[in-house]
Amino acid sequence: MGGQDLKENKTANSGVSPVERLHALVSADMAATDKLIHVRMTSGVALIPDLAKHLIDSGGKRLRPMLTLAAAQAGGYAGDHHVRLAAAVEFIHTATLLHDDVVDESALRRGKVSANLMWGNKPSVLVGDFLFSRAFQLMVETDNLAVLDILAGASAIIAEGEVMQLKSSNNLSVTQEHYFKVVSAKTAALFSAAAHSGALLSGQGDDFVSGVKAYGENLGIAFQLVDDALDYSGRQALMGKTVGDDFREAKMTLPIILAYARAADGDRPFWKRVIETGNQTESDLDRAITLIEQTGAMQETMARARSYADLAKTALNVMPDSEIKRALADIADFCVERAY
Predict the structure, then answer these.
(1) Residue 118 within a domain
(2) Residue 109 φ/ψ, nearest 5 degrees
(3) What's the gap between Cα 254 and its chain centre?
């Protein structure tokens, strides 16, 4: 499960994507966050900043730290601790990507050769650990136990999600309930914590804070559902991304879970071979895509993503109307629309 670029499409009326609009609205804070990220990833051990910089400067959209900054700004926060939290969020995200690529034996990340392929698995894991440590240092500097609890808790949940996903690979008995637990832990937890911590820092009431947290959580689930659908979509290829990575790794994502549950008796041996045994041929991905389409699994996955995006937008009702609120709502729509 990974992240696709939300900058690929532009809104029809402005030529600017909602992510770019949000970036512009928090541009000063984002610049301060980027500066802090580069200061804090330095180390006397040259390999650490070299490896970290390879991923951090590889063109990621910084959506998660932007959520922290936007939530704090929407709540009227006037200090500078939100910048530390946003940098911590990006470090946590980067650390999990480094660990993900080792676990998945990935060769590419954001269109570039992955760090684990360039430097090896051991340095990638250890630099990921270094970035986690830097994130906790930044959290402590806010002198706010509540936000420390939120982000520390999210870090633990993400790790649990990684283990849950690892144990569910090659397993056709994985349920939708288990899948959504993995998505909530592995992806939505950091979206939620990023927004939640920024909102809490602003000092607004419980309704505001819980609403912003719900926005992040539902956006994260929608985001992952679309990613999982795109792995079996021609749209993925048009975006310059590799199709079928999840399939080749025999990951049990929602399109596969639904397609297998609805499979004709004659198609079940195919799924058992390609997923349970991992014995795949070059033509198997095309057949998997055809079956996913024929069973309606792709359409239902996207419909689920749409429903979570709508829940995210509804959660924003706790915010007064503003450019930030409109950009956040549009990001929820855009998250789903990038698949078309």
Answers:
(1) yes
(2) -145, 120
(3) 16
Question: Is the pLDDT reported for residue 164 higher than 50?
Answer: yes
pTM: predicted TM-score of the whole model, two decimal places: 0.91
**SS3 of the chain:** CCCCCCCCCCCCCCCCCHHHHHHHHCHHHHHHHHHHHHHHCCCCCCHHHHHHHHHHCCCCCCHHHHHHHHHHHHCCCCCCHHHHHHHHHHHHHHHHHHHHHHHHCCCEECCEECHHHHHCHHHHHHHHHHHHHHHHHHHHHCCCHHHHHHHHHHHHHHHHHHHHHHHHCCCCCCCHHHHHHHHHHHHHHHHHHHHHHHHHHCCCCHHHHHHHHHHHHHHHHHHHHHHHHHCCCHHHHHCCCCCCHHHHCCCCCHHHHHHHHCCCHHHHHHHHHHHHHCCCCCCHHHHHHHHHHHCCHHHHHHHHHHHHHHHHHHHHHHCCCCHHHHHHHHHHHHHHHCCC
Residue 300 lies in a domain: yes
Give the pLDDT score at 321. Answer: 93
- Over residues 67-89, mean pLDDT: 96
Residue 145's Cβ-side half-sphere holds a number of Cα atoms within 13 Å equal to 0
**For the segment 250-302, what is each residue's pLDDT rounded down to a tens digit?**
999 999 999 999 999 999 999 999 999 989 998 999 999 999 999 999 999 99
- Does any domain span residue 13? no
In a domain, 113, yes or no: yes
Structural domain count, the chain: 1
How far is the C-alpha of 86 from the C-alpha of 281, rounded, in Å? 43
Residue type for 163, please?
V
**Residue span of the structural domain in which 236 resides:** 18-337
What is the distance between the alpha carbons of residues 333 and 312, in angstroms, rounded to a whole number?
9
pLDDT at 13: 44
pLDDT tens profile 105-128:
665 565 567 777 676 788 888 988
Q: Is 125:51 a contact under the CB 8 Å cutoff?
A: no
Instruction: Supply the CATH number for residue 205's domain.
Output: 1.10.600.10
